[in-house]
Design a protein that fits this description.
This protein is an alpha/beta fold and about 260 residues long. It has 2 domains: about 160 residues, NAD(P)-binding Rossmann-like Domain (Rossmann fold, 3-Layer(aba) Sandwich); about 100 residues, N-(1-d-carboxylethyl)-l-norvaline Dehydrogenase, domain 2 (Orthogonal Bundle). It has 9 helices and 8 strands.
Length: about 260
């Protein structure tokens, strides 16, 4: 399929590689960032560099909008395509309806559920791809493209996808932030960062095999108040971390009470 990419960030970078490997043609790239645009085009020597969002002269079957969520609506008001062209955004949080201002387009969503860093390789076959479309024909076209690069393709509507995105923020973004805090605390004590790796790996493995709430460990679930207070004292120089510690400990204890009352 002939595909144009709107955006040249992390998602576009990895999508372009996966689509190219599946023998799709990336025919054009648009990005407001000249540096990002040219970096991506270096990986796509046959793609045309776009300087506007008027794509009506392009031979393109699918346009993928891979820009920050806050920019999708603006792109949609400016994008022009030939009648019948499939246009899909790659956002987890935005509804398909955000694209409704695009005239003549067949609308959809093409959301890869993964965290991407530009130069960190990803096996796209293992990335869940969630698709949605305004009609059956468009859905099938998106599904075929998705199945050519991923083994995990699901149809998910905008409401369910928004909830999934929220869950993903807890599972990925918040977890990553907490791991960053733990590393910072180790560095402050001049301790090797690798000390936590076996614990982190076992925690993730156990959470994947069980309901995480049922295998919770630590001082909060045991109501070790002396330890909890000592930890809060140790965090006096980090008041934000103190607040996080208190809130997370309280949430752990509340979920423990909920589980016992079931």
């Amino acid at each position: 399929m002939k595909i144009a990419l709107i955006g040249a960030g992390n998602v576009a970078w990895h999508l372009s590689k996966a689509l190219k490997a599946a023998n799709h043609q990336i025919v054009a790239v648009y990005s407001r960032s000249e540096a990002s645009r040219k970096e991506l085009l270096n990986q796509l020597p046959l793609a045309k560099e776009l300087h506007s969002l008027n794509l009506t002269e392009l031979e393109v079957e699918l346009v993928l909008i891979a820009v920050p969520d806050a920019a999708i609506a603006t792109v949609a008001t400016q994008l022009q395509v030939k009648s019948g062209t499939v246009v899909a955004h790659t956002s987890g949080s935005q509804p398909m309806a955000v694209l409704e201002s695009i005239p003549n387009a067949s609308l959809g969503v093409f959301y890869p559920l993964q965290t991407f860093s530009k130069h960190k390789p990803v096996d796209f076959k293992e990335v869940p791809l969630l698709v949605e479309a305004q009609n059956i024909k468009t859905l099938e076209r998106l599904r075929l493209v998705a199945q050519s690069i991923s083994q995990k393709v699901e149809e998910v509507n905008s409401t369910a996808r928004k909830q999934l995105h929220l869950a993903a923020v807890f599972a990925c973004n918040f977890t990553n932030h907490l791991l960053g805090i733990s590393r910072e605390l180790l560095q402050e004590a001049d301790l090797p960062e690798g000390l936590l790796q076996p614990l982190i790996q076992e925690t993730v493995a156990k959470a994947a095999q069980h309901d995480p709430f049922t295998v919770q460990t630590g001082p909060a679930v045991r109501h070790d108040n002396n330890v909890l207070e000592e930890h809060l004292q140790a965090l006096q120089s980090h008041p934000t971390y103190q607040l996080l510690y208190q809130q997370l400990s309280r949430s752990i204890q509340d979920k423990t009470i909920d589980a016992r009352n079931k």
